[in-house]
Specification:
Blueprint: H1 2-9, H2 14-25, E1 29-33, E2 52-54, H3 60-67, H4 69-73, E3 75-80, E4 86-87, E5 98-103
Parallel strand pairs: 1-5
Antiparallel strand pairs: 1-2, 3-4, 3-5
Length: about 110
């Protein structure tokens, strides 16, 4: 297999097929929640510590709910780290979005 597939193509194609099915056909997206939108980090300074795979068309509120139900219950708004703009809970997410969720409920 190595000489016939890997040396010629560099891969078996399985990962590409999975990526195409999941991200292409199902329109899945990856979004990154952060606590500090200016440094793109969590409270410990880890840069882009988490990535969530979401359905295409998911909203900022749905991301909050996926992180923690209390965060969603107290959802006020989110901050788009790329633009610095506040966005509502109904804001549709795009692949690669980086968001800070602002909520009246605090997670520990």
């Amino acid at each position: 297999m190595k000489e016939k597939v890997l040396d010629v193509y560099g891969a078996t194609g399985v990962q590409q097929a999975i990526d195409q099915a999941y991200f292409g056909l199902l329109k899945a997206i990856v979004v990154y929640p952060v606590e500090d939108e200016t440094k793109l980090s969590d409270k410990n300074g880890n840069v882009l510590p988490d990535a969530y795979v979401m359905r295409g068309g998911s909203t900022a509120l749905e991301l909050a709910k996926k992180i923690h139900t209390d965060l969603a219950k107290g959802f006020l708004y989110a901050i788009d780290a790329k633009t610095g703009m506040r966005v509502s809970g109904e804001h549709p997410l795009k692949n690669g979005d980086i968001l800070k969720i602002v909520s009246s409920s605090r997670r520990s």
